[in-house]
User: Fold this.
Amino acid sequence: MVGHKNTIFIVLVATLMAKEALAAQHVVGGSQGWDQSTDFNSWISGQTFQVGDQLVFKYSSLHSVVELGSESAYKNCDLSSAVKTMNSGNDVVKLNKPGTRYFTCGTLGHCGQGMKVKITIGNGASSPSSSPSSSSSSSSSSSSPAAISAALTSQGFASFAVLIVAFSVSTMLSLF
Assistant:
């Protein structure tokens, strides 16, 4: 009976660790970060967002991050419907459910100049799920081969790491 409890515990721990290990952390704007000079259209075109992922906004004191409550507020840069305002310069937003979230800069004029992103979060399927910040639409929604390769490599490594940890815990528990 004790062996079954240990096995159930190990499976539960491994499952929780796998979920966290497979979650991606997206630095909004890539190496340029959350800044007016960043081309958010280029950055977002190669991104896929899933439940459990995190957005990281890195920026100077000239900017802030405002989460908007609707598509209309996003399109019209209407900051009066702000859901949340952040200004630490290193803000982390967890994507905890499927759907669409809207972010912009709270500095006057920055949203209108394109400093905004629309994030569409999938529930675990592997379809591209983001939209560029500008109102012009792009018919290209495929991820680059390099981005796909990087994602598969990091997921493979994460799965391997979870397997090693689960094996280690299992071995330790069997000694007792």
